Amino acid sequence: MSEEVKNTEVQEETTGPKVFPMGTFVSCLKGAEPDQNVIDMLAFITQQDLNADNAPIAQALSKAWIYEQEPELAKYAEGDISKLGSKVQIAPLSEANLAQAQKVLDLVEELKKANAELKAENAKLAAEKAEVEAKVSGLEAKVKVAADASKAGEQKLEIAGTKIDAHIKKLEELMAEVEKVKSQGVVVAGAAGGGAAAPAADGGSSDAPATGGEPEGDFGFGSNPFADSEW
Prior knowledge:
The protein is mainly alpha-helical and 231 residues long. Helix content is 62%, strand content 3%. The protein has a two-stranded antiparallel ribbon. The longest helix has 90 residues. The N and C termini lie far apart (194 Å). The relative contact order is 0.06.
């Protein structure tokens, strides 16, 4: 047998119909979560490498293909399909459908990758958010301390201002008294023994003799204003 004939037989064996257990076929049509037997059947139908993540997509595509090829299956109940036999022969998707399935599964992989990247980015943002919140919390504490200190300073300034206002009020009252004294013309007398004697209250001169000088030797009293007078 030539090499070309051998390659053709291998190709037909790969792309031709394949027999699967009826139970696996029924599980696929039921839409239940695919086990490994169902995944193997779906991989043959779609000609794709499948796993637990993309198998449900392949299952939906394969079911649509099966019902398109055998519309009568839609009328059978689960038990009725099982009565059709213990095995079922299934062919892969047509070339056009295979290309469509490939695009769909590729898109699923891209979405899966994008979702993983988004999760990683979300985790990073969550960590950064926690870090920022911690910093903000610390800043809020510092701001509160500064605000309390500022408030205490304002209270001290308010108290000092009140005291200053009180002193200013007292000073103004004192200045008012000074102005009052000035306006009434009150004269304060000089110290005793200093300067000339104050004039009499009625403005006249005094007729009393002058006194002063050294005391007389005979009496020991100071000057006698009546020494020249006749008794």
